């Protein structure tokens, strides 16, 4: 039983995505999320590399483990994105640049939720901070479940 829990999430990916989608129905909010969620993810990776590349790699491995437990294909897509984020982290800019971009992207997210009229999903469960990038990735790949 413990081994199964180690390798499989208690909640399936399609359930996570449907729950996330309930507060992301407005077209403008969706477009804002398609831009801001990847930027936030990128800036976190970049900021972590400014602290320690090992820390950034370690946290990335933990995030990938979360994704593997949901879907191997999702984990592969996120691995590609994480590698791209590490590449972008090599840009010759300082941590203040990444922090400013991070803050601007979060402002965008909250504007999107104001337009939507719904609070961000992570207010209910912090795991939605990792589901947001998965939701964007699955939308880009055309693999999101239909919501009622």
UniProtKB/TrEMBL annotation:
The chain crosses the membrane at residues 35-68, 74-107. GO terms for biological process: sphingoid catabolic process. One of its GO terms (cellular component) is membrane. It comes from the Bacteria. The keyword Disulfide bond does not apply. Pfam families: Mpo1-like. Keywords: Membrane, Transmembrane, Transmembrane helix. PANTHER family: 2-HYDROXY-PALMITIC ACID DIOXYGENASE MPO1, DUF962 DOMAIN PROTEIN (AFU_ORTHOLOGUE AFUA_8G05310). This is DUF962 domain-containing protein.
């Amino acid at each position: 039983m413990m081994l199964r829990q180690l390798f499989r999430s208690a909640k399936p990916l399609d359930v996570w995505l449907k729950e996330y989608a309930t507060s992301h129905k407005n077209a403008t909010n969706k477009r804002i999320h398609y831009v801001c969620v990847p930027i936030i993810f990128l800036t976190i990776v970049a900021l972590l590399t400014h602290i320690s590349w090992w820390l950034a790699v370690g946290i990335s491995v933990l995030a990938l483990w979360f994704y593997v437990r949901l879907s191997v294909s999702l984990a592969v897509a996120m691995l590609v994105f994480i590698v791209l984020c590490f590449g972008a982290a090599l840009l010759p800019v300082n941590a203040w640049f990444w922090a400013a971009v991070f803050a601007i992207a979060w402002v965008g997210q909250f504007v999107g939720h104001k337009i939507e009229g719904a609070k961000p999903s992570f207010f209910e469960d912090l795991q939605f901070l990792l589901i947001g990038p998965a939701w964007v990735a699955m939308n880009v790949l055309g693999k999101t479940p239909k919501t009622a």
